[in-house]
Fold:
Amino acid sequence: MVINLGENNSVLNQYIAEIRDENIQKDSLRFRRNLERIGEIFAYEISKKLSYKFTEVQTPLGIANVNVLDEKPVLATILRAGLPIHAGFLNIFDKAENAFISAYRKYEKDGSFEIKFEYLSCPFIDDKTLILSDPMLATGSSMVLAYKALLEKGFPCHTHIVTIIASKEGVEYLTKHLNMQNITLWVGAIDDELTVKSYIVPGLGDAGDLAFGSKS
Structure:
């Protein structure tokens, strides 16, 4: 299942417009905060899909009957661009366990690249709900690599993959290379084009550089 939250009118689209805007992008603090706020919105929407339990809460004046979360999802993200959106998820799912994956593009002299996986820090995820986030889904290869690396720690009962801006090619790659029966893909926008260097057009540029500065 693919859920595109950007198809509906909400404040989410305002935040997406701001992270795309080349003038607003000059303020890295605002860029990071917008990624975080977008993460909070996705977390709220995903919370509607999780399991709940009935509980009684003692107030100063009586007892309130409330349905509360009955599970703690595992929040995973790809370093480094995924950190702000991950923080947004953690603001909502504050009792969640966390996982971090280091993956990057290794470019060759001819401009081609391959995805390199370096590091994984993850709790046991068997039969848990996994939420894997990254701001951009370009070719989709790094997301597939990250997901398969996480499976070394168990098989989740359901996985929510979250990206703010995806390319059509990236969405197609995911649906082709992953078993989508137990996966929901959440996106904020789907763009039509990839450049020869696999950057999304119109996209927003390099989310990691915009959030944390350029790298050598």
About this structure: The longest helix spans residues 28-47. The chain has a mean pLDDT of 92. The first strand starts at residue 2 and ends at 4. Helices lie at 11-20, 28-47, 83-92, 141-150, 168-177, 207-212.
